[in-house]
Structure formats: C-alpha cells, structure tokens
Write a structure and sequence with these properties.
two-stranded antiparallel ribbon, alpha+beta, 2 domains, 7 strands
Amino acid sequence: MVGHEVRNVLTTMTYALETVYSKVKPQFADRVRKTKTEIREQINLLVFLAHNDDIITNPDWQLDETSVGLQGDIIAPMVDMMRAFAGHKGITISYENFIRQGIPKFRLDKHRMDQVFYNLLSNAVKYAHYYSEIRIVYRGVLPLPGPTDQEPHLGYVFAVLDQGIGILEDEVERVFGLFERGSRASMQCFEGQGKGLTVAQQIMRKHGGEVWFGNVGGDETMTEVCLGIPIERALGRRTGNV
C-alpha cells in the first residue's frame, strides 16, 4: 500500500530529524525546535494524502475495528494537529465536550476515522475565511440520509462547521464525486484534487454511516458538513438529541 510505504519513509526521516536535534548547540535549539515541528506537520500531511490514494486505488480495503472514544482517540488529537495549519490563517478550531454529553464509545476503524476527520477539517481550514472559527458539534441521534423507500436509519450525527466560501446548493451531491470540486473553490483558485470528500464518504459508508452537507452556506457565512455513525456501532448507552 502506498500509504504504508510513505509512512515508513517519513518515519525514517523523523528519526533522522531527532538525531540532528539532539546534537544542536543550545543557542540554536529554539529555531531547530520550530523547524522540527513544521517538518512533522508536513510529514503528517503527506501521510494522510497517501492514505487517501490507498482508499481510491484499493477497492477491496477492509475495516480494522476496535473500541474508539471519538473525542479522546480521534477528535482531540486531530484538532491539535490541525491547529498548527489553521493558525497560519488565524483560524480557531474548537469542539464540544462529547464525553460530558454522554456520547458512548463506538466500534470503528480508528485509522480510517482519523482520515475522515482529517479530510473534513483540512477542507474547512482551506476554505474558511481568515480569522474565522471552525467548530465540531453534536447534533443528536437522528435519521441518516438514505433511500426514501427504506425505513430511516438512526445514527449519532456530528457536524463540522466553518465560516468560509460556502458551496452552491446544486453542487452538494456532485462534489462527493472523485476529482470533483465546487465552482467557488475552482474560481477562487484554491488548491485541491477533489479526493477528500470522496474518501470520507467511502469510509463512512463502509461503517454503515454517511457524510453529507447540512447548511451549505449559500450566503457564504456558514458551511455544515455532517457525518453520521449508525447506532449499531455504539458500545454503550444510546444518547438522544441535545
């Protein structure tokens, strides 16, 4: 797998960086420490981009499920990592206390769910306005999108909210296609390959869940990307709407 091979190379680079850092003279320590942090950020970015390609090029990939606490195991570490990127635009990222709200642990593939939140947050940072806010919130146990001729499927619904360029209502389905991007992103020359939403949706559907747009920010003030985890994957008590 491409992602695995890339990770091995980048891990070697990280070890080499640590070796160099240990030999730096004290007067240069702060500068090298900052450089080391920036390099690690780029390494993480490359690893996640490589994992996107793994999903796209390997249609037979499978889930490796384990007990996962969404806040402690996935969201908190991912937000910490993304804050470094967001800081360059003066963007703040926050999330609700899901543990206090009684959200249970889930049976998920942690590695793949990391990828989902990385893709959604990196998109939010990319398209959000400077000095704005990105929030991750819990919407409740709600019906997940699906065929209208089937009984509604309930799931724990979370949303990533950003204040940015928004997306046109007639594009909300198309942008989940591979290499597809919103017209505003293309016109304003934002970099991107049109893979992130495709991969996030494939991962959530593999879990029996879904990713979709809620409020699409037609007035360019708020975009809401929702993800739903089916209630069958909860490992504790079910929590209702909040």
